[in-house]
């Protein structure tokens, strides 16, 4: 009766039959395919559970569910048909089909053909080294043949794990993995070579690793240099502050963000040296009021003129008035008038509110 339901496509009757048969697996499979929009696809799944494979194949073709047909062929070991279906009608799953076929071929010991299908599925960079890891001679031949940076890197890591550092370096170089090159050279004590690589390539990760190495060996000058090359300005600034490298600190702070600029300005202010730098950094970081206060307190008149260029009607009226008085005192009346007009606009805006 259940088999007849496939012919008549009566799924409702089929559920009753499966229940009476006690075929829980088939009943469960039938419930799972109820979400499929095509009735033929649902009936095809019933046919599979009942061993009616030819009927299932015809039904999948009838409703053009080539994705399910592809899965059907794979599950039944009909790989030639699965590949043909994927290549002709189910290209969205083509790479997955190639991958599944490669896994099957590997499982039956056909590594040569499996390799081809891993390449077709574009998973060869990971899967082929894994598959050949116990056959190092074949793997080395494959690595050299493929000329792929990712595979070079994998092979270099393997060689490094085997303590073959010289060979590892050659393949890291082919992979253009500058971080690993610098890391291995540092490990081997070839610091000069590591520095040349970091300087020549400008690789930020390599520069950062080298900077940490130099800092760990208390070579502060080189550490600052490579932190700067890595654009890790906060690390470079930290070292400059800790080692009183005041000149380098200013340049680094100007390259960095507002927070680092502000911290560098605080450093100069607390040391009570290079107060002009503190004013400039507060200003650049956007702390205009603080920059003005410090400029007034330390008589930084040229800095005051520069900062005043950024003042407008939205600035603190007290600062506007104070700057205006400064410019009047120094006979710069035109600038004083500009600031007073700005202050007037501020008051007008607030009176409207």
TrEMBL record:
Its main location: other. Keywords: Cell projection, Cilium, Repeat, WD repeat. It comes from the Eukaryota. InterPro entries: TPR-like_helical_dom_sf, TPR_IF140/IFT172/WDR19. GO terms for cellular component: axoneme; ciliary basal body; intraciliary transport particle A. The keyword Flavoprotein does not apply. Residues 1-350 form the IF140/IFT172/WDR19 TPR domain. The keyword Transport does not apply. It is found in: Cell projection, Cilium. One of its GO terms (biological process) is intraciliary retrograde transport. This is Intraflagellar transport protein 140 like. The lineage of its organism: Eukaryota, Metazoa, Chordata, Craniata, Vertebrata.
